[in-house]
Amino acid sequence: MWGWFIVLFAAVWLLQLWMAKAQLKNYHGTIRELSRRPSGYLGVGIQKQKLGIGAVAILVTDEAGTVVESRLMHGVTVFSRFEPFTKYIGMPLGTVLEGLNGEPMDLAFKMAIEKIEAQMNEKTNLAV
């Protein structure tokens, strides 16, 4: 009896590892795809939850800080994949930031915006 339980547990664990690897491959492929732009900024925000739905947001802006592309992955399983998120396309970062609240998805976008703003500030400081 215990032998079958251990075999089943090991099989489920290996399946989970394989699915996590597939999700990581999707993450890296999406980052690689969005970072091919000739100019602008890319920010990634992650909001993890111990229980509940987590989110990973990717924002791409032009040099002026206007969102040109956005992707979102949210869910509780390794079956989650990035999907286009068009709500913020064409909006300046400040406007997007004003509309965010405390939901996991919004917190992920806030982190992505903070990373883009840090890149913009770093570029400004290097130019001075």
What does this structure look like?
With 128 residues, the chain is of the alpha+beta class. It has a single domain (2-127), classed as Sufe protein. Chain: A. The chain has three helices and four strands. The protein has helices at 2-34, 93-98, 104-127, and strands at residues 41-47, 54-61, 67-75, 83-84. It has a four-stranded antiparallel β-sheet with strand order 1-2-3-4. The N and C termini lie far apart (71 Å).
What's the topology here?
Blueprint (H helix, E strand, L loop, with lengths): L1 H33 L6 E7 L6 E8 L5 E9 L7 E2 L8 H6 L5 H24 L1
Antiparallel strand pairs: 1-2, 2-3, 3-4
Relevant terms:
128 residues, alpha+beta, Sufe protein. Chain: A, four-stranded antiparallel sheet, 3 helices, elongated
